[in-house]
UniProtKB/TrEMBL annotation:
The chain crosses the membrane at residues 6-24, 36-56, 76-100, 112-131, 137-157, 169-188, 208-224, 245-263, 269-296, 303-321, 341-361, 373-394, 414-438, 459-484, 496-517, 641-662. One of its GO terms (cellular component) is endomembrane system. Its main location: membrane. Residues 132-403 form the NADH:quinone oxidoreductase/Mrp antiporter transmembrane domain. Pfam families: Proton_antipo_M, Proton_antipo_N. GO terms for molecular function: oxidoreductase activity. This is NADH-quinone oxidoreductase subunit L.
């Protein structure tokens, strides 16, 4: 088979798998799990083969016109460059691991067939975004992911948290998708094509008439999909979905799509220095703000959610300084270790019976009970904190090196202000990342107190994928020097200055957090706190669902009174209560947008019921009264009818005489 044929099969196989799972869900439930895993696994093998054949060399393009549009044509096109083939490998590998993990995690879930089908469709949509060479076809995958996320985040629809989170995720991402769609149309109007290669060629020839406007419109969609400030608020709430869904969304799909699209269309953004400065400011606020928020969260999954937002900020920062190689390098590296973190968190939640770090801090023996999750999560947290020699160190260094070169004027793609902004924010975010990573590890695995009830041994399907994904978490960064051809042909090696600075601030952040934890450990035993635990024999998904249903009560206990066991409270001080709520952005949006819309809806409702309905009901009432009067006049008595006829004739005659005399006198 040709490379393009193999590439076409990569997104097609998960789509066929989704249809097959839906068909087998009722008729042959025993085939659901194989049909969920095998198509995605085959797609992963083919994606690796496509990457090897492409080899980081010249991009492979193929296209066929779908249908004549009469204006700008829309083509079913493939564009396989180094970025596309590597990201496709990441997506398929993570999706395969998630499907395998889910077979045990949702073993007794009656809705597993629809869940597995949606995960396969989600994977197919992301692969369509990755391989597509036409912006309109890319948009199809972009929107399908939004729909799938709505259903997957709301999987536990019985809980109000899941219903609210799924609706919020859908609405916030759609809020960004509207200007994104307008930006795509404006880009096609300026360049005369939706084909990515033709668009970039037109941009290179100066054929873009409105670069700043188009770039800002596209950035709105990226901010929504990739959870960047100010449209990032949906991502922490999306933790109401099952843990495997969180791993898929945060590691390889959905949030990675926005970053990938900007990387694909980077020359469009580079044509406007103002747009790059806006992107840099957005990335800086995202990095620092999410780091502070992560340091104040109690729910282990919300810590990881804010961590994802911060790491996406690093990727946006690399794009803001014009280095898409560093951005995609960090995207792939982050995808590996973040998948490990979320899937290991699912094992930890099952073992502890709660999402609460404060409860885990008062639970002993957790590391001993879940050794696979303990060791793999430790490695992934080291990668997240950018500790050498793990993958996160090399990919984060690539971002900081790109910012350094831009700030010092060695690169002129972006303004120097963008470089300084990303460099300073990136170093500050490195301190915060190390702090919340160490805090999570200490509270989860170094708790002191009675052991929580034993929830049983974790299935092999859940623990094996942790080790599979740990391999690239450890080794991917070491291959950076060998993958230069896939990343625009330049080596992504750290510089001495940024390596020393970032490693130094990482150590400072980690050591300060450890010291704060030592200081607060003695106080922890004096503050009793209730634990949320599930039945020892419960399935992992049921444990999480129960913890989520009890989450409000747990959060209220922790947030209602200061928790001296949490080093985050000591480090943040008065800022803690603001950071715990995400700096009140949800409350701000509620005041600025939700309440006015609800108020306007109440006014419209009043007008509809009190005014419009009154007129409509009044018309009906008058008609009904007239009908009643006419009906009563129909007595069936002929004498009555003749008398009425004669009386009417007499009245008409008198009226005619009177009007005739009046007219004659005048």
């Amino acid at each position: 088979m040709t490379t393009t044929t193999l590439a076409a099969l990569v997104p097609l196989l998960p789509f066929i798998g989704a249809l097959a799972v839906l068909a087998a869900g009722r008729t042959a439930p025993g085939f659901v799990r194989p049909l969920a895993i095998l198509p995605t696994l085959t797609a992963a093998v083919l994606a690796v083969l496509v990457a090897v054949r492409q080899g980081g060399g010249r991009a492979v393009d193929a296209a066929t016109q779908l249908t004549p549009t009469g204006s700008v044509p829309i083509d079913l096109a493939l564009h396989l460059d180094g970025f596309a083939v590597l990201v496709a490998v990441l997506v398929t590998v993570v999706a395969t691991c998630v499907q395998l993990y889910s077979t045990a995690y949702l073993r007794d879930d009656a809705r597993y067939p629809s869940y597995a089908a949606l995960v396969s469709l989600f994977t197919s949509a992301m692969l369509l975004v990755v391989y597509s060479g036409d912006l309109m076809v890319l948009l199809v995958g972009w929107e399908v992911m939004g729909i799938c996320s709505y259903f997957l985040v709301g999987h536990y629809w019985e809980t109000p948290e899941a219903r609210a989170a799924s609706l919020k995720a859908f609405l916030v991402t759609k809020l960004g998708d509207v200007p994104f769609l307008i930006g795509l149309f404006a880009l096609a109007a300026d360049t005369g094509s939706f084909r990515i290669t033709k668009v970039l060629a037109a941009v290179g020839n100066g054929g873009l008439d409105h670069p700043t406007l188009i770039a800002l419109l596209l950035l709105a969609g990226v901010a929504g999909k990739s959870a960047q400030f100010p449209l990032h608020t949906w991502l922490p709430d999306a933790m109401a979905g099952p843990t495997p869904v969180s791993a898929l969304i945060h590691a390889a799909t959905m949030v990675a799509a926005g970053i990938y699209v900007v990387a694909r269309l980077l020359p469009v953004f580079a044509a406007s220095g103002a747009a790059l400065v806006v992107l840099a400011a957005m990335a800086a606020v995202t990095m620092v703000g999410s780091g502070l928020a992560a340091l104040a969260q109690d729910d282990i999954k919300r810590v990881l959610a804010y961590s994802t937002i911060g790491q996406l900020g690093y990727m946006s920062g690399a794009l803001a300084v014009g280095d898409r190689g560093a951005a995609v390098f960090h995207l792939i590296s982050h995808g590996a270790f973040k998948a490990v973190l979320f899937l290991a968190a699912g094992v930890v939640i099952h073992a502890a019976g709660t999402n609460s770090l404060a409860v885990m801090a008062r639970t002993g023996g957790l590391a001993r009970r879940v050794p696979d999750a303990y060791w793999t999560m430790t490695v992934a947290l080291l990668a997240l904190a950018a500790v050498p020699p793990f993958a996160g160190f090399f990919s984060k260094e690539a971002v900081l090196v790109a910012a350094e070169h831009t700030a010092l004027g060695d690169r002129t793609v972006a303004p120097a202000a963008a470089g300084w902004t990303i460099l300073v924010a990136g170093l500050l975010a490195a301190v915060l990342t190390a702090a919340y990573a160490v805090r999570l590890w200490l509270l989860a695995f170094r708790g002191r107190g009675a052991e929580a009830p034993d929830h049983g041994r974790q299935p092999l399907a859940m623990t094996s994928v942790l080790w599979i994904l740990t391999v690239p978490t450890i080794g991917f960064g070491l291959t950076a020097g060998l993958l230069g051809d896939w990343f625009d042909g330049h080596a992504l090696t750290p510089s001495l200055t940024t390596a020393v600075l970032s490693t130094g601030v990482t150590l400072v952040g980690g050591l300060v957090t450890y010291g704060a934890w030592r200081h607060t450990t003695a106080l922890a035993a004096r503050t009793p706190i209730g634990a949320v635990t599930a039945h020892p024999g419960a399935e992992p998904a049921l444990v999480e669902a129960e913890a989520m249903r009890s989450h409000t009560a747990v959060y209220g206990t922790i947030a209602g009174a200061p928790d001296p066991a949490d080093p985050g409270r000591l480090l943040l001080g008065p800022l803690h209560r603001h950071a715990a709520t995400g700096f009140h952005l949800d409350a701000l949006y509620s005041a600025l947008f939700v309440r006015p819309v609800q108020g306007a809806a109440r006014i419209v409702r009043f007008l509809d019921r009190a005014v419009v309905d009154t007129y409509v009901n009044g018309t009906g009432a008058v008609t009904r009264l007239l009908g009643t009067a006419v009906r009563r006049a129909q007595t069936g008595n002929v004498q009555t009818y003749v008398s009425a006829l004669l009386a009417g004739s007499l009245v008409l005659a008198i009226a005619a005489v009177v009007f005739a005399n009046v007219n004659a006198g005048s």
